[in-house]
Amino acid sequence: MQYHIQTAPIWDVFKSPCKCPMCELKNKVNARLIRQYTDEAVMIPEFREKVNKYGFCPEHSAMLFDGGNKLGVSLQMQTRTEALNEKIPYIDKMKKAGVLAKELKSEMSKCVICQTLDDNMTRYAYTIGQMFVNEPEFPALLEKCNGFCMPHFIMLLENAHKAGKGGDEYVRNLIFVQKRSLEKTCQQLEKFTGKFDYRSSQKSSSDGNDALENAINKMHGQIVKN
Description:
- The chain has helices at about 10-15, 20-35, 45-55, 60-65, 70-85, 95-110, 110-135, 140-145, 150-160, 165-195, 210-220.
- By secondary structure, the protein is mostly helical.
- It has one domain (about 10-220).
- Helix 2 runs antiparallel to helix 7, helix 3 (about 45-55) crosses helix 5 and helix 8 (about 140-145) packs parallel to helix 10 (about 165-195).
- The protein is globular and about 65 Å long.
- The two termini are about 40 Å apart.
């Protein structure tokens, strides 16, 4: 069966002991896109047009700055800045300022990397459902995984209807895995907070010290890193 995106990375992350397979996929795609926009994309007209139209968000701008190709990023920033400048008309009426601000706020909320990343993650969410239904070995891998961050769990649920006839079983497995993961997160937090009880004999133990980090990442994705 053909899927909408390469399946090898999906097999890899589900075989690994990661906290959220979707976050791992996102990190891999994100790293590839950063390399792309600090390397070959710099001089390709198609990519430059996209940069001019969408630009980069603050997070990806910082990543590009640290990417090792200051000249390439500067060229892209130059054309994006020129494109933005052309969108700012000379106005002489106070009431027009709010309209212009709204238009510019919308313009600055765009990011070519975020857009491509979101498209890739949506296709991954679709493909995981397809693999569950059509790849005999995949359901067992899904059941063994450590669950997902909540944003990616929601994304998987949103795309579950695309799994077809095996979608009901897929949804049951997703929910089982996620509830098990959330229960484990609660247990880790309970153990960690319990160490602050003056009666606790585990105050000096390092066991569970990553509970808060894990819980925040479980809620929002990998936003906290040691």
